[in-house]
Structures are given as structure tokens and as C-alpha cells.
From TrEMBL:
<dbReference type="InterPro" id="IPR016032">
    <property type="entry name" value="Sig_transdc_resp-reg_C-effctor"/>
</dbReference>
<dbReference type="InterPro" id="IPR001867">
    <property type="entry name" value="OmpR/PhoB-type_DNA-bd"/>
</dbReference>
<dbReference type="Pfam" id="PF00072">
    <property type="entry name" value="Response_reg"/>
</dbReference>
<feature type="domain" description="OmpR/PhoB-type">
    <location>
        <begin position="125"/>
        <end position="221"/>
    </location>
</feature>
<feature type="domain" description="Response regulatory">
    <location>
        <begin position="2"/>
        <end position="115"/>
    </location>
</feature>
<feature type="DNA-binding region" description="OmpR/PhoB-type">
    <location>
        <begin position="125"/>
        <end position="221"/>
    </location>
</feature>
<dbReference type="InterPro" id="IPR039420">
    <property type="entry name" value="WalR-like"/>
</dbReference>
<keyword id="KW-0804">Transcription</keyword>
<feature type="modified residue" description="4-aspartylphosphate">
    <location>
        <position position="51"/>
    </location>
</feature>
<dbReference type="InterPro" id="IPR011006">
    <property type="entry name" value="CheY-like_superfamily"/>
</dbReference>
<keyword id="KW-0805">Transcription regulation</keyword>
<keyword id="KW-0597">Phosphoprotein</keyword>
<dbReference type="InterPro" id="IPR001789">
    <property type="entry name" value="Sig_transdc_resp-reg_receiver"/>
</dbReference>
<dbReference type="Pfam" id="PF00486">
    <property type="entry name" value="Trans_reg_C"/>
</dbReference>
<keyword id="KW-0238">DNA-binding</keyword>
<keyword id="KW-0902">Two-component regulatory system</keyword>
<protein>
    <submittedName>
        <fullName>Response regulator transcription factor</fullName>
    </submittedName>
</protein>
Length: 221
């Protein structure tokens, strides 16, 4: 599921991106606010998080403009707390209205609820399949036709990231930043340990050579 963030404050935009990536969403960022609509359509997001006050543009008006060409859920995330502002935003087509500061768990719950209401959060999206291996994104399990094994949080996140980039070589740096973006420093060996643990889990269900090592670069499936 891809979520687009339309937020002009770089710090908030970065915090939201980290939160959503850790929740296993793909994230698209708008950083050029001169032509937002032109960036939305090719990204084809499953949901948009949008501030009301944007450079040279009112978020309510932008919501209406997006609605004319794309049927996508829109959640307003704003510091505006008055009832009139919320009413106007909902009348312009907003699906939800969340005020800052937000609690991360509440925001994620509201995003999930809007996705379910919109019909975009489908059961089959929770099961990823590649080369005879299935990854259950709800149960944190990897399986073949008749065997399954549970993964730890980081094992799951790493394998999920590789599933999202099937047949692509993912660099070690990208994986380290994705898994441990809240830490100041992580020993490069931690990534190798995690990959080896995943390989051991896969071996338990009879899967070998699923994760390839591209020496000096990264990994691919």
C-alpha cells in the first residue's frame, strides 16, 4: 500500500515517512509544491496524508482538484483545531481529519480504518508470493505449500522489503537505513546476521538459495 505525504514542513514530513515505512507502507513524498496534482496521478497512491496550509495553495482546494481526476482517500493532518475548518475539509472530500500533534498509533489506526472503508485494504494484499514462497504480512510468517515458520520483527521487515523489490538488487545501505533508521549507528555485521537468520528460517521449510548475495552490493530474491 502506497501513502503519499503532502506536507511542507520537512521535519514532520520525515517523521511521517519513518512512521509509515516502519508500519510497512510504501511512501511517496511531495517536496515540490508548484505542481502537486501532476505528481499525484503517476504515483497512484492508495491514500494521501495532506496538510491544509501549503505553500501558495490551500489544502482544501487541492483536495477538490485531486478528487476531479483520482478517486483516492484523503486524510487531512493539520494544526487547525476549529470545527469550521474540519467541516470545510470534509465537505471538500476529505475522508478524515486529524489534528497535530498526533499520536503515532492513533494515526496508523485511522489510516487503516480509512483504507478498509475505501475497499483498498484487501485480504489478498496481505499475502505476497514469489518463486513458490509466500510471505504473510499479518501473521509475520513465511511459507511454502505445506510448511510455515514465524519470523521476528526485523527478519520480517527485511524479507518484506526484498519481496517489494522482487528481482532487484537492494543495497546493504538501503536495508540498514530501512531496518534501523532510528538508530545513530549500526554495525554492518547486524545486517549479515539478520539475513543469515532468515536463510535459516527458510531452510526449516525446505527453501534454499532464495536470497542471493551480490558481493559488495547487497541482496536480491
Amino acid at each position: 500500500m502506497n501513502i503519499m505525504i503532502i506536507e511542507d514542513e520537512a521535519k514532520i514530513r520525515s517523521e511521517l515517512a519513518i512512521l509509515l515505512k516502519n508500519a510497512l507502507y510504501d511512501v511517496s513524498l511531495v517536496e515540490d509544491f508548484s505542481a502537486v496534482e501532476e505528481q499525484v496521478k503517476p504515483a497512484n497512491p492508495d491514500l494521501i496524508l495532506m496538510d491544509i496550509h501549503l505553500p501558495g495553495r490551500d489544502g482544501n482546494e487541492l483536495c477538490g482538484a485531486i478528487r476531479q481526476s483520482l478517486d483516492v482517500p484523503i486524510i487531512f493532518l493539520t494544526s487547525e483545531t476549529d470545527v469550521m475548518s474540519e467541516t470545510n475539509s470534509m465537505l471538500m472530500g476529505g475522508d478524515d481529519y486529524i489534528t497535530k500533534p498526533y499520536h503515532p498509533s492513533v494515526l496508523l489506526a485511522r489510516i487503516s480504518a480509512v483504507l478498509k472503508r475505501s475497499g483498498r485494504s484487501k485480504a489478498d494484499a496481505t499475502l505476497l508470493k514469489y518463486k513458490g514462497v509466500s510471505l504473510d504480512t499479518r501473521a509475520y510468517k513465511v511459507s511454502t505449500d505445506n510448511q510455515a515458520v514465524e519470523l521476528s520483527k526485523n527478519e520480517f521487515k527485511l524479507l518484506h522489503y526484498l519481496f517489494l523489490h522482487q528481482s532487484e538488487v537492494v543495497s546493504r545501505l538501503d536495508l540498514i537505513e530501512y531496518l534501523w533508521d532510528n538508530d545513530v549507528f549500526i554495525d554492518d555485521n547486524s545486517l549479515s546476521v539478520t539475513v543469515n537468520r532468515i536463510r535459516s528460517r527458510l531452510a526449516e521449510i525446505g527453501v534454499t538459495d532464495f536470497i542471493e548475495t551480490k558481493r559488495g552490493v547487497g541482496y536480491k530474491i
